[in-house]
Amino acid sequence: MRKLIALCLAAVLATAACGTTEDPAGERDTPAAGGEKITVTDSRGKEIVLDGPAKRIAATEWNSVEHLVALGVMPVGVSDIKGYGQWVSAQKLDDTPTDLGTRGEPSMDTLAQLDVDLVVATDSLVEGALEQIEEDTPVIMLAGGDANDSIGEMWKNVGILAKATGTEDRAKELRTEFDAKLAEGKAAIAQAGAAGTTVAFSDAWTESGSVSIRPFAKGSLVADVLAELGLETAWTMKGDEVYGLADIDVEGLRELPADVRFWYIANDAFGDPYVDDLADNAIWKNLPFVKNDQVHRFPDSLWMFGGPSSMAQFVDAAVDAVS
Quick one: signal sequence residues (predicted)? Predict the structure, then answer.
């Protein structure tokens, strides 16, 4: 996740066209029982054969961690546990997981000591790490995202992990719960008279005194969830192909419509660039949505790249923002 990594380094931070009838498990094979083997096809198109439902799992990326906990499987190893606790609140860890180190470069020694039967990773691993892990342990690779179908990709990842862990029934429950949350949120926004409202969601970081702004353009998971609620994304630029993210500076905000609602996320653990660094900026102060008090900060620790649990939090936050 190159933009998130840049954000992390800069500020010492961490970083669909949705058909609601899709099969959340992605594959319809029944879960294995007893010693029956399970075959899962990961995002590489590679078939991963497991001796049975995986129990001792290590996960190197936070979306995978959130998916697993939501499915009722507590990982035994998690990369950057402190960061997860600061940025993800939808599915909390208990005190049992062991920290694997950074998300891009987990500790091979720690993985070996944990005696895991599965590692779940994304393409954020440093070069050579995947091959080293696969020498001893099955690895399921999950795509970080897909800006062409961000919500669909989320469910695809949940389904892969559900099959690997024998929790497909729970995955179906998650889908039902999320669909109900979307319907509830859409109705609440319509009742508030906010359907069709144009919003611009972003985060930001400061490096060498300069504020970089990251728009969540169409195709990003957050923007697509907001679209499901009947809200319009104001950003017109194209985001990257994986996460739907773009880059602008404060001058780029002049392109937003005057009546836009400007929503963003920050974290008290690392500061708020919009408040800390732009409060006295002449361009920022004179933007119509700033002068009209249409700037709203979402609650901390809502993971913008998470699963259905985090996205349900975004639904609630959006409803609160228009109330």
Answer: 1-19
Boundary of a domain, candidates 150, 171, 192 = 171
Note the pLDDT tens digit of each residue in 43-59.
Answer: 999 999 999 999 999 99
Residue keyed to tokens 């690997």:
164
Task: Report the SS3 class of residue 202.
Answer: strand
**Rounded-to-10 torsion of CA 308, 309, 313, 315:** 30
Query: In terms of domains, do 131 and 208 share one?
Result: no
Asked whether the predicted pLDDT for residue 3 surpasses 50, the reply is no
**Long-range CB pairs of 63-66, under 8 A, 24+ apart, other chains included:** 63/122, 63/142, 63/144, 63/154, 63/157, 63/303, 63/305, 63/306, 63/307, 64/120, 64/121, 64/122, 64/142, 64/157, 64/161, 65/91, 65/93, 66/90, 66/91, 66/303, 66/306, 66/307, 66/309, 66/310
Shared-domain flag, residues 197 and 270: yes
> Quick one: which of 200, 199, 202, 175 has its CA closest to 189?
199
User: Confidence class of residue 35 from pLDDT cuts 50, 70 and 90?
Assistant: low
